[in-house]
Amino acid sequence: MDSTRRFPGGVHSLSTVAALSRRDRLFIWICLVLVIALAWAYLVHLGHQMSSCMAHDSIMAEMGMTMDMPWTATDVFFTFTMWAVMMVGMMTGTAAPMLLLFAGAQAARGRRHTPPVVMVFGLGYIIVWVAFSAGATLAQWMLNQTALLTPAMAASSGRLAGGILVAAGAYQLTPVKGACLTRCRSPLGFLVTNWRVGPLGALQMGLLHGAYCLGCCWLLMCLLFAVGVMNLVWVAALTAFVLVEKIGPFGLIVARVAGAIMIVSGIFVAAGVR
Questions:
Q1: Could you say which DSSP state residue 174 is in?
Q2: 91 in Cβ contact with 5 (< 8 Å)
């Protein structure tokens, strides 16, 4: 294929990222790394705080003093913040190929001030995951109100944990998952078919790409209700898995194999087999 072939919207097939200056490429990478590092630093700090609180609650329980209290507005706010920061930390890295290609496409079209437009695209992407965080907060509140979560924010019963695993695994095998994952794995194809001009267009593209990403990964994120919302080992493992799905050479196969494993594991967990 000719490396200078031009698609609708001025997107190049092979030379797009090359059109991006080294300074702009470095700036984008620094922003991505900084956002991810700050998000994970907050999560680690929050994890330490929660460990201390759970240890205190355990001592109180041994003394026969329970701390079952309804959520306040402050609880809702901090739970939402936790989910939003977690989603940013987990999903920002998977958006890197798309952001770099979009920045290269802007540069190839001779646009000045490429980084700000790329940030608008990234903002659209983050808005989608912040909206998901609001839904996850609501789900956590409902599970907490019905005593289906432990103090460690994990499913309190094997049936619930197993059900979440089976649901997530089954979704991995659906056409919807496959279609969303294919679009996430093809940033060039996304730009060719969904190009918009201007800052508003960049925001719309970011929202759409975020929607595809959400369609691909939302039930994977719900697995945290099974293993512990703030279980940072599992958060890191899911982050790595999503990266392999979206960027690895065999992402589609990995997704389906993992789905089958989740279904089998969920059945065993629900049945109480250890």
A1: S
A2: no
